[in-house]
Amino acid sequence: MTWGEFCALLSGLMPDTPLGEVVSIRCESDPKRIEHFTPAQRRIYDNWAGRGIRMEQDETQYQEAMRQIERLFLSLGGG
Prior knowledge:
Elements: H1 3-11, H2 18-27, H3 31-35, H4 39-49, H5 59-76
Helix pairs in contact: 2-4
């Protein structure tokens, strides 16, 4: 299936299907409607809206992640 076919099928999804409901929750932009979401709807919306948000790390976590990356590159280089 091509991307165009997939998009055409997806755009025809009715909101009364489970996937259609999730898509409509994720696409909602009216603050008044969002304010009245159920806890389940709010969880779906927040998870989607929060994608790509970088979580803050403390310095210890950052340094350990850098050591892991360094060990990875060393092992790839045979060291």
